[in-house]
Give the backbone structure.
Amino acid sequence: MIQVTDVSKWYQMGEVRVTALDKVSLDISKGEFVVVLGPSGSGKTTLLNMIGALDVPSEGAISINGRTISGMTRKERFAFRRETVGFIFQTFNLFPTLTALENVQFVLDVAGKGRESRQIATEVLNDVGLGERLRHFPHQLSGGEQQRVAIARALAKGSPFILADEPTGELDFMTGVQILELLRKQSETGKTIIIVTHNREIARIADRVVRLHSSRVASDGPPPGGKVPITELEW
């Protein structure tokens, strides 16, 4: 269970205070497939980063399974991320000197799965369609392929929470559908999936859509018109 309670985040730019989130509250249950929808600057990525303990609120509190993230030390937040959260970053964050396989293996080694890391990494990269690109470095991969390595890295740990920032942004339609199917399957096994996006089509397959506007929650509920199968998406 994720509980976000009256969370605000602001940044001081000289004498000006810029508000990224303003009094946001929401609860997300185990196994929910949630899409946070909104335009650029609405606070989507800020919210995701705070749920994933990459950042802390200026006001309010965030707790996951009863643990209050906002009260953790930096070291405790690192351990929490390592043990609990799989991230899919919009900017990929791949290590340029490691191959696709080594990038995925690295997070598994950090999570203490060294003995099995090569086998798990290979299997997950095959799942995202990169079985022939295991030994390629990031600069040898297209943007879409780098995105799939980032997705494989997030899935490989088996974390109970998967947080995804525009996970299909660099992908063609068919690959995007493949990735969304993988994420949906993760949700069906009890993992909690949170995707932030500006793509309204992706919101149609969610259990729930949280729409942000001007740093606040504008609406929170099922997709308008009801949830549809992934096969009905088009973008």
Remarks:
- The two ends are 32 Å apart (CA to CA).
